Amino acid sequence: MGVLDRIERVFVLGVDPGLSRCGFGAVLEAAGEQRAVAAGVITSDPALPVPARLAMLHGELESLVAELRPDVVAVERVFFQTNARTAMAVGQASGVALLVAAERGCRIVEYTSNEVKLAVAGYGSADKAQVQQMVRRLLHLATVPDPPDVADALALALCHLAARRHEDLVCRADERDALPGGVRR
User: What's the predicted TM-score (pTM) here?
Assistant: First the structure.
């Protein structure tokens, strides 16, 4: 019996961090089926001071996590940004998302943009439109998730579910290849 056989459902909240626009997308996987449960964007006014915007983001994410009660929160890991100012804002928003998840006792995972694109679109350099289309197809949505922040957040949740399936396959192979007494072949 593999890990997924023991767990009937998992509920993942994907967070695409940003200070001006923070995308979120919740995906429930049950009995092998995946469906979007909630998705949207948390926005803040760029005219406000950064501490006020971060506090507002904290409050919104806290309410969202309290309402949805996800098993796992998947946050995009900032791997590379050409614009230092954007990288700082994304890093600050990411820190808030990680803090909220930790405060609520959620399991936390992080994936780079390339890992998400590879898991969802099969190509680590997929563009926004390709990711949006694949999220629509994988979740059987009537329309493409828009803005792209929403699609990215849903893609983060889908990436974690794919990583979970891969982890289960590795566990099953390990179980199969183990000799009596825990000795490996």
Answer: 0.86
Domain boundary assignment for the chain = 3-175
136 Cβ contact partners less than 8 Å away, ≥ 6 residues apart: 143, 144, 145, 151
CATH fourth-level superfamily of 3-175? Ribonuclease H-like superfamily/Ribonuclease H (3.30.420.10)
Positions annotated as catalytic residues are: 16, 76, 149
Distance CA 53, CA 83 (A): 20
For the chain, the farthest-separated pair of C-alpha atoms sits apart, in whole angstroms, at: 65
Per-residue pLDDT tens digits of the chain, which is 185 residues long: 444 445 578 999 999 999 999 999 999 999 889 999 999 999 999 999 999 999 999 999 999 999 999 999 999 998 766 777 788 889 999 999 999 999 999 999 999 999 999 999 999 889 999 999 999 999 999 999 999 999 999 999 999 999 986 565 545 555 556 556 655 55
- Gap between the Cα atoms of 2 and 172, Å rounded: 6
CA dist 68 and 13 (Å) reads 8
